[in-house]
Design goal:
Four Helix Bundle (Hemerythrin (Met), subunit A), mainly alpha, two-stranded antiparallel sheet
Length: about 170
């Protein structure tokens, strides 16, 4: 069986966002064990010119949901980008996963050649649906989930490769 646009997006993004939620669970447990507030992590970033932790979570969610809006023509939910707690970030992830669960195979399959035009900063880009999925949205989801992982890891949260790959085991 050939890989499809649906199988290359829905289960992949669901897994990565579920794993991201798992990272937050482990970060909360770590904060309790080490007796500090998780709010400390909300301002953490890997470098001064990088976006802070909550923005990494927001962009991972947005990159996933916008794939289905731009390629699949499905109305994606809009979020206010105002999360200030782990609970609010977990809720955003959960809402994104719930939205992804509504995407049907026919929303994505056969859209490989669909023209997708979008703004990336000040530049407008145009890609085919397949190229958008393979070379824009999937790398974006992975980049921001990885960056969130690395921010937590650099702050002492006990995360490992299996947390990234499998989430809850």
């Amino acid at each position: 069986m050939a890989i499809s646009m649906y199988s290359a997006s829905v289960p992949v993004f669901t897994r990565m966002l579920s794993n991201l939620s798992h990272f937050l669970d482990k970060a909360e447990a770590n904060a309790v064990a080490r007796k500090f507030e998780t709010s400390v992590l909300m301002t953490s970033r890997l470098a001064p010119d990088m976006l802070p932790f909550p923005v990494q979570v927001r962009i991972a969610c947005d990159a996933a949901k916008l794939t289905f809006a731009r390629v699949g023509g499905v109305d994606a939910p809009k979020f206010e980008d105002n999360e200030t707690t782990f609970a609010e970030l977990k809720e955003r992830i959960a809402k994104t996963i719930a939205f992804i669960a509504t995407v049907k195979p026919e929303d994505m399959n056969g859209k490989e050649d669909k023209v997708v035009t979008f703004k990336a900063g000040p530049v407008e880009r145009t890609l085919s649906g397949e190229d958008y999925l393979k070379h824009w949205s999937t790398p974006n989801v992975y980049f921001h989930v990885t960056t969130a992982y690395n921010i937590l890891r650099s702050n002492g949260v006990d995360l490992g490769k299996l947390d990234f790959l499998l989430g809850k085991v």
